[in-house]
Every structure is written in C-alpha cells, then in structure tokens.
C-alpha cells in the first residue's frame, strides 16, 4: 500500500499482523502459523518471516462484474508475486473463502480472481494481500477436505454459466466454510484493528437471484482527468460522494482515463510507438488510483472501489480521441491495458481479464437487467458511408436477442454513445450520416418484439440530460434515456436532442460535474432517475412507471404518414448541407400554415430534406401508394440537375440498396410559388436502381427496399449558386 493512503488505515504492528492471519484462519509459506510444510512454535520466527514474505499492493483493490453467485477481485502487486484473497459473508469472518493467483510483468503485475459459489443478495467483506512465495495459504483447522486454492497447473474454471458457480473446478474461489473461532473474539472490530498495512480490504454486494423481488440502486458517471488544454485534476469529489451513497454498484461509464491528453503519465498521439503507448496507458490507470503527490493526495477512486463493485465500460479516450477499433493501430494496446486494470468477466470461455469481449448483460434480481455495450471496438470509421455500424454485426445480434429474451421488469441499456443525444455516434450530424441506420434497427427491434421498459443510461457528451422518445409518433414513449457526466473533464452546454426520434426533454444542464443514479423499487413498479452535482446536491429526479413506456408497435400499420409542419419541424433533418443538420422552422407562409426550409451558400452538390423515424422501418404495405410534397425556392435561376448517385429528386434506401426518382418535364423544378409533386411508389414508375444490374427498379427490388426502409430524402437544392428552399405537406399514403 502506498504512503499516500496510509492515513486511511488503522496503524497495525507485528502482533496485529499475526492476529489478522489467525482471524481469517490462513498461514504463510515460511514460518507463519500452520504452513503447508508444518507449524512453527516460534512467534519471533512468525513475525520476521511474515514481514519478509508480504509484498505491498500498490493501487488498491476492486471488485467487478458481480452476479448473484460470482464476483471478480482485482489487485496489483508492487512486484511479481502471488496475490491472495480471503472473503466472507460474515463480519466476524467465521466463514472464509479463499483463492490466489500469481502475477508478473506480463500483466504489469495486475491480477484478477473469480470468486464462485457466493450467496445472492449478500454483502461480502474481503481482504487481499500478496506474498513473494507461491505456496497457498491453508486453514489452521476445519479445512481438511474440499477444494484448495489454485496452484500452478490448477483448473482455469472455463465454461462457467454467467451468474452461476462451478463446483467442478476446484480453486476458482470456493465458497466460505465455517471455521472454529480460535481466540474467542469473532467480531468485526477485532478484524478491522488487526489488518496490517500490506493488506487491502473492501466490501461488495452480490446481485439478487433472478427470481428475487428486490430493490436495486446504482450510480453512474464517467469522463475523468486530462481533457483539453486545461485539464481538471483530482481528487474528483464526485467519486467520494458516490461512495458515501453506498450504491449496490457503480457503472464507470467510459473515458476512465484520457490517454490522448497530457497528464504526468504522458500523452498518446497517433505518432506514439505502439510499445510506448502500452506503458502510457498503464501509467494512466495507475495515476487515476494513485496520482503523483504534486497533483493530489488521492483521486477518491480507491475509496469508491473499496466500498462497492464496479462495471466498467470503455469509450474513446481509453485509446485515442474518437477512434474506430478496426482501423486504429493503437487499439490492441489500449484494450490490453483496460483489460489489465479493471475487473472484467464477460466471456464464459475465458478467465477474468483474458477476454477482449467487453459487452455482456448482468441480472440484478427479478426487476433489473443491465446490458453493457462496446461502441468502440467494432465501429466503422465515421466517414462518408451510407451505412455504418457502432456495434458490429455479432454484438448487434447479441443485443437484439438478449433484449428480446430478458424477462426483467426493467432493461437498463448502458451505452457510452447516447441514442438520442447528437454526438459522434448513433445520432450524428446529418452531413455524417450512416450510424442512424443501425440506430433505426435497434429502435425498430424494440418496437416489434416488443422490448418493455427500456431505459438507456449513457455518458460521453459531458452534460446531464433526461429525456424520452416516441420515434413512431404514436403518443407512447418507446424508451427513456438519461445521460450523466463528466466527473472531471470540462463540461459544455446542452444541445438539442435528435429530432428524428421525436424526443421529449425533461431536464438538461451543462457546465458542471455530475453523476446520476437509478433506483428500482422492490415491487418493480417504478424506476427513479436522479441527477446530482459532484457534492451530492440534487439537480433533478424523475420517477418512471412501467405504464409510462409502451414499445409495442401499432398492430395496424397506418394508411397515411404526413408532415404538415403546422406546429414544429416534426423531427425532419437536412442532409448534405455543409454541416447544417436541422432545417429552419417557419410558423407561417406555408401551403398553408407552417413549413420548413434551409439555405446553402456553397453550391454544386444537391442537399436534401430527410424524414424522421416515423416514416421508416417496414413500409412494404405502401408499395403501390404515393409520396407527395410541396416545394418552393428562391430565386429560381441557375438551375441544375442532380446526379442520380447523389439521390436524384427522391431517394429511398435500405442498406446498400438505393432507388432514386427524377421528375421530368416543364415543371420539374420548384418555382418561387409552391409547387406540388407526387410520385407512385411502384415499379410502374421509372425509379432508377443504383445498386443492381437492372437499370430500373423491379417490383421485387422495390418491395425489398420498402420492407426495411432506412432513408427517405427529398431534394431541397436546385440552384447552383446561393439558394433557399422550403418544404411543406409531405404525405406518404397507401
């Protein structure tokens, strides 16, 4: 343990060290009570050998990825060592479980141990220490049978089922066993007094069993230290405030380090050699737990990790700003350091910390299931592609299946990238479109399954926002979303929500550091979202009932979808307009009433109006129907024809399948007065198929596109110079 945190512990001498080891019923390799080789009769030998054998733990401890029956303990030794953990559901430590693992420079002397066979919905106390020797500690008495701590060549415990223990693999953290009380004290105060400084301790709560009616409370935030030219530095009071709230667990929601910003550990840039980057990444995690003395005495992260468990999600700054995993050469080293420094257990076929899979779900009783997403490792780069992925196909299919299969009352989707708040992710500016197609797939899946009571908890954007979304505009919310953070990074002012999802904003605040909480009632009937500043002052709370969310799509598909723009812009966007992503709303001057419009002063490339989500999805029933709308422009000279590949006058798209239509004739361009247009959604019209060998769309192709419609755009620019365009009365009818 470092000197920085010595004042957080009760001072303990040689007698306390001996008493602690007696209390937990374990013995060391070289002279302490009851060694594997035999027992020593000399207390002097016990003391001397114990001091020499212990290796300090350099950066505290943590427990993560907790289930009803398992948990992963993390620690880092100051040098190559054997890390030991003893744990018990009793304050008196009358029932003791034990495991160990060896660590070396290969993992920067970090280690992770999976504890199995735990009792559900139970608070555990644990102690972790390290020794220079590899011999396992063993009990003084009452432990002659049963599994022993894992030694070299022991079982790796593969093939476990998430949330269940594995009795067939000895040594992977056996459950606590009853131990006779040697000194007659047997109380928690005695243990606290006996812990030597080389031992780190903590507590955590296991999840309730899946059929257990239990209340659940957790907190989340992210974005800490080293962002921008003037980084916010420790101690991060928000972390201490969260610890004082004693949540069931903490969701550390991305940007747990800022690898690409200068801190004492260094700075990673695109020119950093890969082997140097790994050491910087590791240094970032170490300074987050134990900062240099000239920066701060502590960060409060150790304090939080000692008091509750953590689920850790990564985002971009664990590697480099806005990275896309498949093309980022530094990603594997950033991923390795993240895996080394957090207690991760998200792959049934791997030991903790050995898998590169960071997405998974965790059940907390009858009412809560937490779904963790990885929006960085598999994402396509944010370049001009028609359709891009954040999740990758395998993760996307897992998410859809896991959401549909869950019978938890509330589904909590932990996505670093907000679904409804514009960022560099799903809801992007319209001149960088593509991720929206995957967002539409997720939202449509939520509606058609349907997935009940979905609440998204997000971070990344450095402000706090609570909102709900009705993408099909049927008057029922499909999901709620709450965004929190930062804990340390600079914060900005909130922006508008993503209009295409038909949002309702309940709260938005920026320019302060904050965290959020979720509290689910024991009955499961309500879920309460809380937003707090870093000192714990309440900013906003909202209680949501299960009846407030109805994701089920209307079983009767509408015969007509229309936008009259009489009250607002109704979620429409502007695409390919040099960065403008929302049209201007005009309350008067339409045909009649309100309308939308936009202006552009670059010329040369047509820009388009883009429909909101209520027009999209399965619209095959509209085959043979019509699309109509009104347009006008000013002025009406310097007209040009849009290239079909740009989208013609109307674009329909599903995946890489594109159909375009161009109006031909004397009135093909809008005038300075309102001009009405209508086109049949049928292969009987001359729709151009841009992605088939057939030049014109066939009925089969047309139906394929309408059955999974991801994009519908209407041309807004007709003038090669500065232009202004207006749109009104869009109607899609069968």
Automatic annotation (TrEMBL):
Q: Where is the composition biased (Basic and acidic residues)?
A: 158-190
Q: Which InterPro entries match?
A: Laminin_IV, Metallo-depent_PP-like, PhoD-like_MPP, PhoD-like_sf, PhoD_N, Phospholipid_Metab_Enz, TAT_signal
In residue numbers, the region (Disordered) covers 137-190
Q: Bias category Gly residues: which stretches?
A: 143-156
- The residues covered by the Laminin IV type A domain are 567-734
Q: Is the keyword Disulfide bond assigned to this protein?
A: yes
Q: Answer whether the UniProt record assigns the keyword Disulfide bond to this protein.
A: yes
SUPFAM superfamilies xref list: Metallo-dependent phosphatases
Keywords (alphabetical) are: Disulfide bond, Glycoprotein, Repeat, Signal
Listed name of the protein: Alkaline phosphatase
